[in-house]
Design brief:
Blueprint lengths: L1 H28 L20 H16 L5 H6 L2 H22 L3 H17 L6 E4 L3 E4 L2 H22 L5 H23 L6 H21 L8 H22 L2 H5 L5 H7 L1 H8 L6 H16 L12 H8 L3 H24 L4 H18 L25 H14 L32 H6 L2
Antiparallel strand pairs: 1-2
């Protein structure tokens, strides 16, 4: 675990430190597009944040290659080189798109080529475990086509959800964390060496997102752009494919007495393997809804609009930050709930906890319908919108009450120094000369 933590910390540090210079470079290069009708930010913001994230990816792989316990991943598997090759290609296309706005079909072709590059180097799905049947081996063409499809779908799902400050990076970080926990359990819990590359990829992906998030939280100082969203989408897809396509079900069969029985009895364990996209269920749902919505209107599936899930949350009345946190909540619930259920599907407490958290999520969605108020003793700990009366409202009410009583207020003078208390001490300063306005008028 220490080696993974070191790799994670190095990736976070490199990504974080590179983002500042990359922002200045993006401004100098003119990678600051004008605000579009579908955008929610109000000021032009530089893109090209994916440059810093790609630097973090390279740093993480370099550090892991020089660690004794992680070096075996590079010696026994070609998957790290396959990931780096595909990531470099999709990142380069993303950088060009952030600067020159490439056509959607060109980007789609680049995504398929990047996936093909990884497939050619061995990062592909070899088999699928099916409950009640056992392991179903895939032919070379079946595995290659399925791998390319999963990569393209995941990349576009992450790209579609990248609409609010910190949303895509945070959701991918949550998915990568859940994937890391599951892969680490297979690697060190069951001793399945095929899960080692996926564990490393997930740790590096966490570092890329965590290092970029401080610069991307609302209000964002830089956007990741397509160079970042397509990059982290590809790394997430590669992690899931490495885990689902390379882990031998026979190794898990040892714990359940036979391959068929193991596949049937441990089906919840295979949920993240068979359906790796469940860890990004929210972006996938957004992708499907966007394609259906645009096709129904006679538009291209790649045509941009303001109908995404995060746009709907803003229309309901949620603030920018709260909409992002709600998306985080549902992503974490689905991802970690799936992993927890795969660990112990017989536990009723896990099911009850997921149901209770789902109810909490529904309440959060309905927050704009009612405005909760914190107790008066806790008003200093919550945002102003949750207080009974804000200071500005109190000042306005006090001014209105004084105007209604006919008392004219004098403007405050900066040189006045007030000293007052329960003993009746008067103020010291220019106003203390005439504490009573009527007495002041009689002396004129």
């Amino acid at each position: 675990m220490r080696e993974y933590l070191l790799t994670l910390c190095v990736t976070v540090a490199v990504t974080y430190l590179l983002t500042g210079p990359v922002r200045k470079f993006a401004i100098a290069a003119g990678a600051m597009p004008e605000i579009r009708a579908r955008d929610v930010h109000r000021e032009p913001t530089p893109r090209l944040g994916g440059i810093a994230m790609f630097g973090g990816l390279c740093a993480g792989l370099l550090v892991a290659d020089n660690l004794r316990n992680l070096n075996g991943v590079f010696e026994l598997s070609n998957e790290p080189r396959a990931l780096l090759s595909g990531a470099a290609l999709i990142w380069l296309v993303g950088v060009l798109d952030d600067k020159f706005e490439l056509d959607a079909l060109i980007k789609l072709g680049a995504q398929m080529i990047s996936a093909g590059v990884m497939v050619m180097q061995g990062l592909t799905i070899l088999w699928i475990p099916v409950p009640g049947i056992g392991t179903v081996p895939l032919t070379q063409w079946q595995g290659n086509l399925l791998t390319v499809a999963l990569v393209v779908i995941t990349i576009n799902a992450v790209n579609f959800v990248d609409g609010l400050d910190g949303l895509a990076a945070g959701m991918v970080c949550i998915a990568a964390t859940a994937l890391f926990l599951y892969a680490y359990r297979l690697w060190f819990g069951y001793g399945i060496e095929q899960a080692a590359p996926a564990t490393l990829f997930a740790a590096i992906l966490m570092g890329m997102c965590l290092g970029f998030l401080p610069h991307n939280m609302h209000p964002a100082r830089i956007f990741m752009g397509d160079s970042g969203s397509m990059l982290i989408g590809l790394v997430l897809a590669a992690s899931a494919i490495s885990l689902s396509g390379q882990v031998d079900p026979d190794a898990l069969a040892l714990f359940a007495g036979g391959e068929r029985n193991a596949t049937h009895a441990m089906f919840p364990v295979f949920i993240p393997l068979i359906l790796p996209l469940t860890i990004i269920a929210i972006p996938m749902a957004d992708l499907v809804l966007a394609i259906v919505r645009r096709t129904w209107k006679g538009q291209s599936p790649f045509a941009a609009d303001r109908g995404h899930l995060h746009h709907r949350l803003l229309e309901l009345g949620h603030s920018h930050s709260r909409a992002v946190l709600i998306m985080y909540f549902w992503s974490g619930l689905i991802a970690f709930g799936t992993v927890a259920y795969s660990v112990n599907s017989a536990s009723m407490w896990i099911v009850l906890a997921i149901a209770a958290l789902s109810a909490v999520g529904l309440i959060l969605l309905l927050l704009p319908r009612f405005t909760p108020r914190a107790p008066r003793w806790a008003e200093g700990l919550v945002p102003p919108r949750y207080r009974h009366t804000t200071r500005a409202a109190e000042a306005a009410a006090e001014a209105a009450a004084r105007d209604a009583s006919g008392t004219e207020l004098e403007p405050a003078r900066p040189i006045a120094v007030g000293v007052s208390g329960v003993n009746g001490a008067t103020a010291i300063g220019p106003r203390s000369r005439f504490p009573d306005r009527r007495k002041a008028e009689s002396t004129r």
